[in-house]
Amino acid sequence: MKVSKYLSKHLRHQPERIGLTLDPAGWVEIDTLIAAAAAHGFRFTREELDHVVATNDKQRFAIQGSRIRASQGHSIEIDLGLPPVTPPTYLYHGTVARNLDAIRTDGLRPMKRHDVHLSADRETATRVGARRGRPVVLTVDAGAMHRDGHVFHVSANGVWLTQAVPPRYLRFPGPR
């Protein structure tokens, strides 16, 4: 298993599986993480960790002093402490065609995560959607959502977060 996948699993979803306790904002001491991973048969060095954090194309992790956390995407209760921000007029969400009927009915929901993840540009949303098949990019009228009282946050790696996107704020590509 690659270090980045290991970090995602244990910093976003299942820290308890290796005996980690994250603080309320999702941080854990790096030395504690490395020791816990080694105790559970997965060894990596601080240098390898630093390399993964620095070169991860999505900048999924943040280091602050001697601590590390996942930037977003948690399925466990974490308060990232991100202030509310005004979004751009439009944001984008990458998905695949098989999800469109449910999205037309229910909008975008966080599913197993705490927030819906949105992209600032179509290219990023296309890459996100392509992870599950042929991508479909939806346009989110974030400006209207914000005017209507929906709250947005932006993570350290530029992912836009909101609790949900009702269908009325979505624009679907092409004919139905």
Automatic annotation (TrEMBL):
Keywords: NAD, Transferase
Keyword Kinase assigned: no
Domain of life where this protein originates: Bacteria
Swiss-Prot/TrEMBL GO biological process terms: tRNA splicing, via endonucleolytic cleavage and ligation
The protein's Enzyme Commission number: 2.7.1.-
NCBIfam families given in the database record: PRK00819.1-4
Protein name listed in UniProt: Probable RNA 2'-phosphotransferase
